[in-house]
Amino acid sequence: MEKNEKYTEKLSEIDQHSPFRVPDDYFDNFYARLDSKLHGKEENRSVVKEYRLYHFLKPALAIAASISAIILMLYWPIGAIRQKNMANSDQTVVYSIEDVYFTMVSNLDENSFYALLSEPEKKEKLTMDEIASIVNSTFSDFEIYAETK
Questions:
Q1: Burial 37-54 (b: 16+ CB within 10 A, else e)
Q2: What pLDDT, in 10s, does the model give residues 43-92?
Q3: 135: number of CA atoms within 13 Å, CB side?
Q4: pTM
Q5: Cβ atoms of 146 and 94 closer than 8 Å
Q6: Under a CB-based contact definition with an 8 Å cutoff, are residues 113 and 105 in contact?
Q7: What is the DSSP string of the chain?
């Protein structure tokens, strides 16, 4: 009980007057101001916001950037591991002339094979561009690099 009396004494010492007050003539023109605000908002609602292309593409660009970042984070280490394994393997494949000739002949049908046998040998000189195109179409870059060592 003593505590309650103590609090009541302290509360009675506090000024009972509220520090907040309503501005003068606030309620005199309240309805007029309310009407102007309401009609003003209706006019603002009729104005359509102009969205730029960026607002529509922003989510799609964010998703594309996230997916590409994930792919790069996964692909880059795997590619580095692959290159190390390929460099460490040091296995070069050597084809004999017979193997190459057999693969060329096995892809021919009978008529083409007989036509090649019956034609006399033509000695044509190939240009450097033709040789380069044949080599590029036949061998991979790695095989060409391995042969130059």
A1: eeeeeeeeeeeeeeeeee
A2: 555 555 667 787 888 889 999 999 999 988 888 888 777 777 665 665 66
A3: 14
A4: 0.26
A5: no
A6: yes
A7: -HHHHHHHHHHHHS--S-S--PPTTTTTSHHHHHHHHHHHHHHHHHSPP---HHHHHHHHHHHHHHHHHHHHHHHHHHHHHHHHHHHHH-------HHHHHHHHHHTS-HHHHHHHHHSPPP-PPPPHHHHHHHHHHHS-HHHHHHHH-
